[in-house]
Specification:
The chain contains 5 helices and 10 strands, in the order E-E-E-H-E-H-E-H-E-E-E-E-H-E-H. With 218 residues, it is of the alpha/beta class. The strands form 2 sheets. An 8-stranded mixed sheet has the order 1-2-4-3-5-6-9-10, with helices on both faces. Helix 1 (50-60) packs parallel to helix 5 (200-213) and helix 2 (85-102) crosses helix 3. The longest helix is centred in the middle third of the chain and has 18 residues, at 85-102.
Length: 218
């Protein structure tokens, strides 16, 4: 796999103001671009999160240009947290930016809140070819996540979660993914918690193997 080390810092013009972003430059012959969304900003989530970083490394390894950004109110991004509603719009802003910049089909990846939120924008977007949900939350304290929209999502989907994910219990996640249309794959990293602590390598490998067998065959 061809790894690119060139990183560009930039701002996207979002609905609530400028969104801080980082672009890992891809290979000249890249077949896809990629977007990675970060976990909940009110609990310390930013584009520098370790899971987000390793997902970026996995996708960048295929030569894809990979964009990460901070949701509104996180890092240097303007605006304030909008409980997922405005963050869907932030994701749409990032997807449009990638389309204008590269004119390539997109692989979407999101971790936790970034998956729950970003999938709402990525699933119906005609420029998105494939979807990766890492640590997709089902129930977190008083925040319940609904995924009825996934019943209309026929794109290739990868779900990777820790076997001990406290926010996505195995049985509940299996039931959820069972209702999602094919093509799909559900991978549990045994012994891993929601944050894949101590199991980042296995998470990254699961993404790489799926991309190699699914996306690179497009």
């Amino acid at each position: 796999m061809a790894q690119s080390s060139s990183i560009q810092s930039l701002f996207l013009e979002g609905q609530a103001g400028r969104l801080e972003a980082l672009l890992n430059q891809g290979a000249p012959a890249a077949t896809h671009a990629a977007l990675v969304c970060h976990p909940h900003p009110l609990f310390g989530g930013t584009m520098h999160n370790k899971v987000v970083f390793h997902a970026m490394k996995a996708l960048s390894g295929f030569g894809f240009p990979v964009l990460r950004f901070n949701f509104r109110g996180a890092g240097l991004s303007e605006g304030t947290h909008d409980e997922g509603r405005g963050e869907v719009e932030d994701t749409k802003t990032a997807l449009r930016w990638l389309e204008v910049r590269f004119h390539l089909p997109v692989v979407f990846a999101g971790f936790s809140f970034g998956a729950a939120t970003g999938l709402r924008a990525a699933c119906p977007d005609p420029h998105v070819d494939a979807l990766i949900a890492l640590g997709m939350p089902v129930q977190v304290d008083d925040r319940s996540y609904g995924y009825k929209f996934l019943s209309q999502c026929n794109k290739p989907k990868l779900f990777v979660s820790g076997g001990n994910d406290q926010f996505g219990p195995r049985h509940e996640l299996e039931q959820l993914v069972g209702r999602v249309p094919e093509p799909k794959k559900l991978v549990f990293i045994e012994g891993a918690d929601h944050f894949f602590s101590g199991h980042m390598t296995e998470m990254k490998r699961a993404v790489e193997e799926w991309v190699r067998g699914t996306v690179s065959s497009f």
